[in-house]
Structure formats: structure tokens, C-alpha cells
Amino acid sequence: MDDISKITLSRRQLLKLLGAAGAGAALLPHLSFQARAQGLTIPDSGAMLPTDDVTLRWVDSGDQKAVFFREFFAAYEDTYPNINVAYDPLPWNEIAQVVPLGIRNGSAHDVFQVPLSVSPAQAVSEGWVQPLNDLIPDFEAWKAKFPAGVFLPGVTDFDGKTYSFPFTSAKRYGSHLLYNKEMMAQAGYDPETEPLTWSTFREAARIITEQGNGSYYGFIMGGNQINRWADIIRNFARMAGAVGGGGSPVVDDINFVTGEYNFNSEEYIAAVELLLALRDDGSVFPGILSINAPQARAFMPQGAAGMILQGPWNIPQWERDNPEFDFGLSSQPLPDDSDAWPLTISQGGANALWIFSGSSVANVAGDIFHYLGTVEGQTQWASIVGVADAPILPEAIANAELGARARQALTLFNDQIRVGPNPVVKNPDVVQASLELRTPEPSFPQVIQGLYTGQLTDVRAEMNGLQERYTAELERAIAAAVDKGAQVSRDDWVFSNWNPRADYGAADYDAL
Amino acid sequence: MMSTQPEPLQPSALSKTPNWTKTRWWFSGNRPRLVITTLILIPICLLWIYPFLWTVSAALKSNGEIFAGLGLIPRELELSNFPRAWTEANIGRYFINTVIITVSSVAIVVVTTAMMGYVLGRYRYPGKRIVIGILVATVFLPQGYTIIPVFELISSLGLSSSLIGVILGTSGGSPIIFILLFTGYFSRLPNELEEAAIIDGAGFLRVFWQVMLPLSKPIIATVAIMQTLHAWNDFLLPLVLTLSRPDLRTLSVGVYAFQGEFFIDWGGMAAAATITILPIIVLFLFMQRYFVEGIAGAVKQ
Amino acid sequence: MVRQGATIYKPKRQRSLWQEAWKYRWCYVFMLPSLILTGMFTFYPIIASWYFAFLDWSGFTAARTFVGLANFREVMTDDLFWGAFRRSMIFMVASVPLQMGLSLIVAIVLNDRALKLAPVFRTMFFIPVVTTTAIVGIVMSFVFSPFNGPVNGILRNLGIISRPIDFLGGADTALWTVIGVFVWKWFGITMIYWLASLQTIPQDLYEAARLDGATRPQLLRHIILPLLTPFAIVILLITAVGSLNVFALVQTMTGGGPFFASEVMEVYIYRTAFGTGGGGSVPRLGYASAAGVFFGIAVMVITIVQGLAVRRIRTRPIS
Questions:
Q1: The pLDDT of residue B262
Q2: For A439, which of C147, C166, C281 is closest by C-beta distance?
Q3: Is A295 on the interface with C (CB under 8 A)?
């Protein structure tokens, strides 16, 4: 599909134009695209590729993946002129419709990401996807090179077969501080030497807003993208001591020490109150409820706000599209009077890719997966994307040329993130409960948004309500799974030997 | 079906000056009042179309200038928004898709509902009452949520990856009220012309095509206009049906998707919106008479 | 052939049903295309959605369980459903009188042929009707943007506000802004309905009224408005149904947010059907269908009650 590549180029041209002053820069990205695409060579994996003209259709959630894949697919098409790749980067809420509808009528993309509302187990049991074992050349050797924990039963592997390939690392978080250096300096703070705390964060937002005098504000976020509310509050609270799981609906916000939800903990409540205090100070960009996260990101280089809490994927975008934008990054603001606790991630990778069971060009997808899993492919990914989504092979990070900010972010993540326990690893039957689990509504992020808009007022009562709803739903899901013959109980969420400050590994599971 | 007399709609009741001369005195007796009315209406109307003026003006400005001030005249004419929107938002393609869908669905709907309305309105045959009963009942039935069954049906026909699927879905949605419009109209037509045609040896088909259908022009206009508005505005059906085939999108879906990706390109968005909106406004200005009469026909009948 | 037309009517001879049907075979042929189309895209989807309402089914997977009335019970106890129900009612109650009342005033003013610019005004009022709804939504999200959008710009220049208002993101403003845009969008079509109705009033009546010495308000009250009543009922029905089915405009302007503040019924159903609520929402077509059917029944009841009330008023002797 020619249109897609045209879109990429012109989009960048456009963003460049927005940022840079000269219209003469318009042609530059085009040239650099060509040069880089030519520099990317794809070795022969030994896959049996078709020789007639075929089209591979690929859909994912875009963002940094779009940056990489547009370049990569262009090179891939150059290498195999008979293969045409139709790439559709789409927002998650469109994936939630495109993928299931496509599967229903047999027209699904050959490669896709499973919608957030569908669990991996569900995708496999519904027959949406096919195992990669016979599609990726030299599968066993290829798989063996990944660190332990990338491929997990109940997550990527089912019945001894591997169904999905998470090709990036989950070691990142999406709510660290990114700030406009000039505004921050004017406000009198330097988070690089001394990370902001909850109270200095609030104060900095207030001062920046005051200095902006209506033309810019202290803090911005994408408030109509509902998950942002959960991400920010959860991470504030976890660092303050409400330790718990995150990364999948089965473990989000659950404290593995007790197996209980954290919603009505003092830390969660305090984090919500911090956000409300920012609102009441008038320090928040007035339009946050009608913009999504990418829009909020785009407002930062325009000088509309001083601070944003987002992920490392902002770094390469701003560096590329707004080279004149001087920004810094630092930890999400830390608790005022206690040591910060680490954030917990699940074992395994991120950005899992799946191959449609009805795909007629699954071998092509297998060939691409193969390349993405080699040190070469992973290094290529890291070089183009940076740390936005760090590659899953550690060698690739070492090999890649990373900028100063990217290195800084990596250090931050290494300091602040630990791998936590995973109930699915402890007891594979937990998957059965996860199949039954439905997010209760109003959900955690919705409630936070409602508190922010003022439609809900009593923070403590609302958080207690969440605690009750989520607990009741988890119990209902477990009971339903047990009814269907699964061996699962609330105890599967309790890990008595869990230390949030250390990675939880195979030895710990054995010691349980 | 409110009309009390079985009399066809006057073709030019609204557009051309009818015999108003008699009553002119009543309204125009007071010239200052007319001037005041006009002076009040001018700003209201300008305000009314201000969003469009703003959009067109934004399309002619650079991204930096759009939000810099409220003036509608661009300081510097920025024409690059249009080619950018045209190529990147794929407006040309979407436009053709939308026109194909609209024209085809209007043709399908007019012909099928006219045929149905004709036999229901003018013949008495076994089963007719049942059909009318079911049709009328459907208007009052709770619709439920029908987009998924429609989607499944089109998929199982193997049409989900073609414009034909969208055309059928758009045509099938709402014609019951159109059938009833035709039925009512045909049942009130006098018999003489039809009889003359039969005496001339015309068969069933010829009577319909050459005599009755041309007589029903007012209803055809109504149905065509209502269906045009429906097809042009339809959002959910084309959205769901073209999810996996972006090249088949209609304008409304396409520009919506374009907004998702190019949200900070205000100028490009405004240009895309302008390209989408202008042709239909121009079409409307030329066909105004038919639009207005068509819509008026719906309520008069 | 025997036609039903008003003038000729031959008495029927006794014939078998089959003979009768064969005689009218062309009629069946003529019904066929339309019946197939409505059967496929009107009857089948309605019946299917009723059936889905009794299933626990995501709509996307093969697994579906018959659960009887469980979905309906859940719908009736779901606060979010009743919230959406309430907002749909607010939407109707606020938009319909506004739209009908204002457009009637404008129609009466424009019905004056001496008003030279009337066709121009009429055209301008009608323009929003012909523009694509989804694109109007996008244009309006620019116009109401808190980041220096023109509405905020004007309000700020006039000194009415000091801090921009997030019209589409504010809990108190989102629904009302959408209602306002909705009225603006469909105002023109209601105005045309009124104009068409006004022109059915025979000119002799005006003449006669003048001879009787009637003033303009008297003419309006005693001649124009009573004659418009039958049309008003049709217009009311069309407008009310339209306001309850609003979807594209809300979806493109606010998506139902913030925190459900502008979530009307169609958006609620769409969200539950496709699971677009974010944060792990699950698509539940069965449940969404139940909500759709339940809402449909409620609307039907409201329509019938409305119809009965109108009939009562009309049969009352005019005092």
C-alpha cells in the first residue's frame, strides 16, 4: 500500500514544519527516510517465502511501532519485491473492533495485537491465532536465545506451543516526569539533580502556571484517554508504598502480600487528593478532558504546559519532530517523607504479536518475527525507536546507539522497576478465572476521571466502592471458573515470600 | 400521512413565487419592520454559518496562525493545507466512495420502494394486507441494536470487503416509511391515465414505468433527498463495515479517522473538512428547490 | 386486472387463492426486491437483536450461552444505563422544544414573501443540515476548543471569562454543548417542515382575517397556530425520534465523556456492545442488545402515551 508510506513521510514533514521555522526543511525527512530504509538489510532467514505476488496485512497499536515498521516494511518490500505489506497502525479502541470483526468474517489482518479486552487464553481457545512453532525458521534455536520469562505458559505458550511473540521489554513505565526545562528552571526547580516530590511537584505546577499567566500551565495530561488516570494514580501510590501488581487486568492493583486490592489504601487516596489539589490550584491545562494522550504530548513542545507524566515513547518523538524543544526527564514525583518503593511489572515482554489462524501468508509473518527476534533486528529496533519500547534482548540495548535521554530513562527504569510474581505462573488455572473477569463499571480510571471533573466528590467513599466492586467481581470470576472445573482460589494471588524491592524469580516460586 | 386532501404536492409550492400578491399587503405593509427584520436576521445567519466560515478560513491559514487570533481573513494565504489533506487524508478516494454509495443507494431505494408502493397502493391481491400490517408494525417496533446482525449478514454474503456491502446496508436501513409514502401517493392518483395506457395496449410493466412512475415525481424527489441525506450522513454502518478496509471508507469515516492520526494538524483537518463539506453545500445551492420540496413533501404527505 | 382505484371496481368472481395469486403475479414480482431488502436489513436485524438480548455473548467469540432474562435484569439495575436513559430524555426534552419553537418563529418570519432576502436566509439556516454529521462534530470540537478555539477566544475578548472553558470536557457543559450543536445542525430541516406546513394555509383566510380587523398576534394565535397543529404532531414525532437516536454527533464530539456526562443511550449501547470504555471493558453484545430492546420498548410506550394525550387534547371541543 503506497498510501501508507506517503502518509508517514508527509506526517513527519508536517510535524517538522510545525516545529522548525523553515519550509525548506520539508524535504529533509523524505531524504533521511530513504537513506535509512536503504541501510536496513534483511538477511535470509531460510523461511519458505512465496514467490508470487502476495500482500501481508499487519495491524498494531502504532505509536513507536509505526515509526519502526514503516521503515522496516519499506526495506522488506525492497528485499522481496513480490511481497507487499499493508500496515495499519490504529488506536487501541479501534483494534478492539477491527480485530474481532475481521476474525468473524475471515478478513482479519495476518498479524495483529489482541485487543486489551481479550485475554491471550481467550484468543487461543477461540481459534483466532496459530502457533509460531512451524512458522518461524529454526524455531527452537531462535526461542532459546531469549532470557527466561519472555515466553510463559498461560501468557504466550499454550499446550506446549508458542502463540505470540512479545518483542519488547515490559521494563518501562508510562508516567514518569517529562518537563520543559526552561519553565522548570524559571520556577526554581531542577528535577535532574533532585527529583520532585509530591509537594514540590504541586508547587512547581503552581509556580509555572502563575508565570504562564494564562498562556501556559503547570501540568497537562490526556484526560479523555481513560487509562491515563489509572496509570498516574496507581504509580504515585505504588511508589508511596501501596505495592502491587500491574500490567494485566488479572493482577492490576492487587497487593501480592495480602492478595487484596489496593484501592482504598491511604496511598491511593492520597494520590487522588494530590491530583485534585493540582486541579484546585488551577495548575492543570484547562482542556485536558477533551484531549487524548498523544494530543497532550503534542501540546508540550508547543509550550502549552510545563510538565507531563508519560512514558519514554515521548522522547524519540520530540527529539525527532521538535529538535528545538529542550526537555528533561526524571522519576515520577516521589513520596514526601518516605523512601520510594519500586514499581512492579509482570514477568514477560510487551507488544505481543500474533498470527491470524486464517492467514495465507503466515510464513511471511514468521520470517518477519524471526528477524525481529534476532540481535540484529532487535538492535535495529532500538536504534530507530530508542528506549520508547526497549528491545527484549539485553544485547540489543548494549549495541544500539542511544541518546543521553534514552540512557537516562533506561537507568531510571532499572532503578525503579522490579519483576513481580505472576499468579498464572503459580497456577495455570488462574487463566480460567481471567477469562471470566469483567472490569466492573464505573472502573478505576473512570472513577478517577469522575472525581477530577467533580461529578464524584467523596474520594474515600468512591475508593471504598471500587474496592468492593473489584473484589466482588474477582470472587465472582473465580467462582465461575471453579464451576467450570478450574482449580483456582484467592490464595493464588497471595505470595507470602514476595519482596517488592527484589525481582521475583523461579526460585521464589519453588520456595512458596 | 397528515394531508387531508388526496391531492399531489404542488411542485413549486416553496421555491417560486406563488400567488402571494394577494396577501402581500399584510406582511409588506410595514416597510421599516421589514428592514428591522432583515437587520436582525443578517447577523444571526452569519453566526449560524460562522463555524463553516471559520473552518474555511482555518484551512487557508498556517497552523501557527489558526489559533493566534479570531480574524477570518488570513494574514498570509496558506494553500498547502489542501493538497496535504487531499493526499494524506485520501479525501479523493473517500469522496468517490461516498458518491458511489449515495447514488447507488438512492437508485436502489427509489426503484424498489416505488415498485412496492405501486402495487400496494393500486392493487388488491392476496397477502397484501399482511404485508402492509407487518410494514406498519415495524415502524413501531423497538429496534434493538442491529449493527452486529447487519454486519454478520453482509459478511456471510461475502460482501464485507466491497462497496456493495455498504451500499446494500445503506439502502436496507429505513425504506419502510418511503414505501408507505409511495403507497399513499399511488393510491390517490386518478385512474384515467392508467386506463388510457391499458387501452393503448400497455402491459403492467409499461404502465408502471411510463405512466405511473413519472407521475410520482414529487415522492421520488422526497425519497431521493431523504435517502441522500441518510447515505451522506451515515456513520456507524460504514465505520463498522470498512474497519478492515480503509480504502473503502466514506468521507465521514475517513475524516474521522484522519482526525485520530493528524489531530494537531489543524490546518490540514480544516482543509479536509472544507473539501468534504463544500461540494455538498454547492450541490445543495444548485438543487435547493428539490431539497426543500423533497423534505417538505415528507411532512405534507 | 382488477385495480383498487377509486373509480372502477369489478365485483370478484369466486376463484381459488392460487388462481387469484397467479393473476396478480406481477404484484408479487414488484414486491420482491423491496421485501428482500427490508427482510434482510430491517426485519432480520431486529429479530436477531431480540434474540441476542437473551444471550451472554460478546458478539465476537463463538461462545454464547442462553441466559434468559438475566441481561434485562442487569440492565434495569445498572446505574449507568439509567444515567444514559436520563440523559437521552434530557436531550429530547431540551432539544425538541428548542428546535421546534425557534424554527417555527424563523419559519413564520421567513414565510413573508416581501422579505427580499428570505431565500438567502433560508439557505443559510439549512446549510448545517446537508453537512456530514461526523464532520460537524470534528469542526465543532475545533470551534469549542479550550486551546484558543474561537468560542473561548470571543468570550475572553469580551471579558466574560478569564480562564478558557472546556466546553466538551466539562461535566456541566458537555451535554448542553452537544444539545446546542444538535439543535443548530437539524434546525433547518424543522424550519422547512414548518414552512411547508405554513404554505398549506389558504390565503383567503388571511384576507378574511384582515377584513375582520384581526391584529398580527391575533392572526397568529387564532388562525395560523391552530391550522398548524396537525403538522406539529408529525414534526414533533420526527424531531423526538431523531433526538433519541443521536449518535454520530456525540461520538465525534465527546465520546460520551467526561465520566459519562454526555453519554446518551445510543452511545451507551455502542460502548457496551464494543467494549470501548477503556481500562479493560469487555464487549457484550448480548447485554447491549438487551439495553437496546429495553430502551426501544420504553420509547414505544412514551410514543403511545404521547399519542393518546394528543388525541385527547384534539378531541376536546375548542373553546
A1: 59
A2: C281
A3: no
